Amino acid sequence: MKYVIAVIRPDRLEAVKTELEAEEVHLMTVTEVLGCGRQKGVTEVYRGVKEVSNLLRKIKLEIAVNDIFLERTVNAIVRGAREGEIGDGKIFILDLKECVRIRTGETGGEAIG
Question: Is there a contact between 81 and 88 (Cβ–Cβ < 8 Å)?
């Protein structure tokens, strides 16, 4: 089992969801987050004063998958999120030690779905 964490641009969420659904990956958690990286932030003018913010709005996807779905999941995220520019995002893949479905008590890969 793997735990996939992806940080993407907010405007790419629908495209990523579409790609994931095409790969039969339907279960995910989506969170709005702030972050900074190589994009260096944005400069905005508010009431005539320049304001620099190095924290940009991003979307964090968290997806638990069985090993057979890992490659499809990562490829779907890349297809949906990639624009070819700095700030497209990152994908982190972690080993998932255990998963428990609270309602049924199922564990492991069966609990993921």
Answer: yes
Task: Please tell me the pTM assigned to this model.
Answer: 0.86
Confidence of residue 113 (pLDDT cuts 50, 70, 90): confident
Burial-class residue 67 by CB neighbours within 10 Å (0-12, 13-18, 19+).
exposed
Q: Tokens 């495209």 appear where?
A: 15
| Range 2-112 has CATH code 3.40.109.10 | no
In the chain, domain spans:
2-112
Beta strands at 29-35 and 56-65: parallel, antiparallel or unpaired: antiparallel
In tens, the pLDDT along 14-55 reads: 999 999 999 999 999 999 998 877 766 555 666 676 665 678
Q: Quote the longest CA-to-CA distance of the chain.
A: 58
